Amino acid sequence: MISRLPRWVEYGAFVLAFVAGNVNAVGLMGFKHQSISHLSGTATLLGTGLSQGTLSSTLHLLGILLSFLFGAAISGVFLSSDSLKLGRHYDTLLVFEGSLLLASIYFLNNGSLLGHYTASAACGLQNALASSYSGAVVRTTHVTGIFTDLGLMLGAKLRGGQFDKRKALLFVLIIFGFILGGTLGAYLFSLWQFFALGLPAMICFLLAIGYRVYRAAARRNLRVS
Questions:
Q1: By C-alpha distance, which of 119, 141, 120 is closest to 129?
Q2: Cβ atoms within 10 Å of 80's Cβ, excluding its own
Q3: pLDDT value at position 137?
Q4: Residue 185: what pLDDT?
Q5: Which of 112, 160, 168, 219 is deepest in the core (most CB within 10 A)?
Q6: Amino acid 38: pLDDT
Q7: What spatial distance separates the first Cα and last Cα of the chain, rounded to whole Å?
Q8: How far apart are CA 22 and CA 185, in angstroms?
Q9: Which residues neighbour 159 within 8 Å (Cβ) at sequence distance 6 or greater?
């Protein structure tokens, strides 16, 4: 049951959604209004580009899709199951994500399209980092599915069914984090341009450190008990 969800998952989901919203805002403002934290719009642009666009733009959009896939594959290498639990390589993956975002800053400030691909890979890695826990789907780089699940829960409540408040809280935190991240990302982009990606990169590094400290403390408590 979702009631057994540890608090670190809720806090982490909020912060990761904030990171994704921040990165996506920079993408929308700096990558020709192109989303990079999710692929629905990019796949649609690829479809229209195949019939109306140029070869270079079509290949670029395909590169965005494949980069996202590559990032998710990196998570798949380190994560052996789809359950959220201590002791897995979340800290390692967060360091990878932060490094990809820093690489994006370098490439984008030098006019290289590689920055689009590394940013997309970072989002793919993050989206695959948190998959599911006790039946709750946890996606932090887009909110379409979150709104859908929340709507289903509200509909079930209206017909007299149970309403899982803990699960709803998780979804609301993800939505709020994504919106707040987008707001700050847009503001920082107006000030710093692509250097705005430095904030989500630093957050990833801090999360990695915080998770490692939390995991070490949890292990010490288990040994004591």
A1: 141
A2: 9
A3: 62
A4: 96
A5: 168
A6: 79
A7: 25
A8: 4
A9: none
